Every structure is written in structure tokens, then in C-alpha cells.
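Records of this kind hold a single protein each, on a pair of labelled lines. With that in mind, the following record should read easily:
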Amino acid sequence: MTEKQSAALSVALIGAGSMGGALLKGWLAAGTIDPARSAVFDPNINDAMKALCDEHGIAVNKGDGPFDAMLIAVKPQVANDVLPSYAGLAKDAVAISVMAGKSVEGISKALAGAARIVRTMPNLPAAIGKGVSGLYAPDAVEEKGRDIAEALMSAAGEVVWVRKEQEIDFVTAISGSGPAYYFLLTEALGEAGAKLGLDKDAAAALARATLVGAGALVASETRTAAELRKAVTSPGGTTEAALNVFDGEGDAMRRLVEAAVAAAAKRASELTS
């Protein structure tokens, strides 16, 4: 719960799949929502999620509000079919979308012209409360609506606001898709260890633990990633030898990452409707 938004919120959760379910668990653990005034709408809700709602007294597939927020966590390809049924809820609630590729304009059309809409882009670690979400809100969303969105998305981890809706595409390219970049490096590092002669499982375990440890160190330190990199790199040592291959003359790795992120942002823009 943020300092800005301290009262328990009434929320209508539309879609209780992986992301919606993870957010609901986070809200309940943090006391972010008032279960008695909240509801979950999902015609295909699984048994575990139904049991969680029953345990906390959250209505399932019933309730007409008013709600402080309506969080939309359905697949974007079904949004135009699903959302019109909930347009009435958006009259009083700020609508918060975690759908990738669905613009504020597109969401508004599906919700019969609703204007108080916040777009968010969480990432995979949000499922365990260790993610980061980029948020965008048009001028129609007042400060209270922004505070509500921030309080709800904080259950998934850190929150970063962006200034323009287009920047959600950039968030997608950096943090939305970003976990896969680190997973790929970890995968490649393990494979390289095996080619050196390490047992395949041992190499994979070393690479995986290094990813986890490096992330934990970045999270616990005030030093920047660049400062931490320099702290590991002794002049003329083993780390410097590897980094010279990764990012030596010509900044090869930086140029590759820049091109990869640009490609992801471009594709995110193409997929947005």
C-alpha cells in the first residue's frame, strides 16, 4: 500500500489467469483491497483461484459495484468480445489494463467510451512480486486514479510511470521482454561452460546461480550496474578478457542490445491496436 493510497480498495478483477491471479494474491497479502467490496469475473476460473476467493469472501462472477478500479487481465485478442459486458463498471471505476498491445483508444471503444484508463506493462517476475511495471495514463485520469493504479500494480513489484503512450512500447522492449534476454544469456553461459568441459548440469547450475546472485546484488546495492561491473573487473584479469570479447572495440554488445531493443519496440508498436 502506498502513502498516497492508504485505504483498502474495491476492485473488479476481469480475468483471473496467471497475471490476474498473481496480482490478486499480492493484493490480499498486502491488504491492498477490501475483499468484501471486490469481485473476480472469469467464466473459466480455476479451482484454486475459486477457493482463494471463497476463503477471503470475494464475489465470483457477480457484483455491479461501484468499484474503485477495474483491472483488466484478459488476453488482448478477446478484449473486444469480452470488455463490452463490463462497460457499466467503468463508469465509476478507473480501468487498469495489463493487456499487451491494446491501446487506450482501443480499450475505450470496447468499454463504450470510458476515459479513465491506465495502461500498464508488467513483466514475468511480477508473478512472484519481483517485477516492474511501466504505467501510462492520459489526462482524463485524475491524481486519485493514478494513485489507485500505482497502489494495485505495486503488488507486482516496482512501478515506473511514462509520459507518452508510445513509451509503453519502449517499456515492453526493455522490461516486458527483458527477462528473456537474461534467460538467453544464462542459457548461453551454461552451454559455454559445458563446452569447456564442465558437466552439463553443473555448468547450468553455475550459470543460473550467477544470474540470481547478480540480480540480488543489484537489488541490494546503491552502486549502479556500471559501478558493480567495474568492481568485478580487475585490470588484465579474467573478467576483462571476457568483456573485451563481449563489448570491446566498437561496443559490439551495446550495439547489439540497442538493435535488439529497437526491434522489440518496433514490433510492439506494430501489434498495438
Strands lie at 11-14, 39-41, 59-60, 69-72, 94-97, 117-121, 131-136, 157-161.
